[in-house]
Amino acid sequence: MLQDVDTALSVAFVVKLDDQSLGAFTSCEGLGCEVVLESREEGGNNGFVWQLPTKLKYPNIKLSRPLGRETETIAKWFASMATGYTRGATGTIEAMTAGGRVIATWGLIDVVPVRWTGPSMSADSPKVLTETVEIAHHGFLVAAPAAGPRPGTN
User: Where would one find the signal peptide in this protein (predicted)?
Assistant: First the structure.
């Protein structure tokens, strides 16, 4: 039935880092993965080039939201980088409906803050002040299989 389909029309992206909430964001760009290919020409076969997968590449993720109290959490996270980076921080991004129901979750490995951009302010053009956080990661967490019997077994 069409009414059973739940699309995320009005979405908030809740971000957590090692179970510490960084708050909700209204925009999320860059979730993705790319397979890097290496071209190899086969000797004696001039009409064909092999495309071999070599590695996965993950773009940086940009998260934006209106400026608020949660900005302090982001500032503390970036300030902690001055004392040294500890590899291994895991993160999650949850896409949620306006009602708070989770639509999708992405787990991220080795999250590193890259850039924070604060609001542009001008008395000539009043508008909502926004901030943008850019993070890098080194792959997606693979969810553990659910416990219980496998389909087709009793």
Answer: none
